[in-house]
From TrEMBL:
Pfam family, one: RVT_3
Highest taxon listed in the record's lineage: Eukaryota
Positions of the RNase H type-1 domain: 38-89
Gene3D superfamilies from the UniProt entry: Ribonuclease H-like superfamily/Ribonuclease H (3.30.420.10)
Designated name of the protein: RNase H type-1 domain-containing protein
Length: 89
């Protein structure tokens, strides 16, 4: 018998899926560097929008600056790379 996915199987799995929500406390961990750059970029193909954002912190976690920028004509990888460039400029 050939094992394949059909509409009924996919629908049955999707209807019975219940995500498990886990919450965790997140805290700043100090490090050996003087400043830290945390970045994230994203692209949503369905609406053709992309964005880049980040935060620069001191060693103790104090914020130096934060930024967020819209991006044009992008992919997810481009958004991630552009965010790092924006952060170090």
């Amino acid at each position: 018998m050939e094992d394949h996915w059909n509409g009924f199987t996919v629908r049955t799995i999707a209807m019975s899926y219940r995500p498990r929500i886990i919450s965790r406390a997140v805290k700043w961990n100090s490090c050996d560097y003087h400043i830290i750059l945390n970045t994230d970029g994203s692209y949503k193909k369905s609406i053709g929008k992309a964005g880049a954002g980040g935060i620069v912190r001191k060693r103790n976690g104090d914020t130096i600056m934060a930024f967020a920028n819209p991006l044009q004509f992008s992919t997810n990888n481009f958004s991630e790379a552009r965010t790092v460039l924006d952060g170090i400029q």
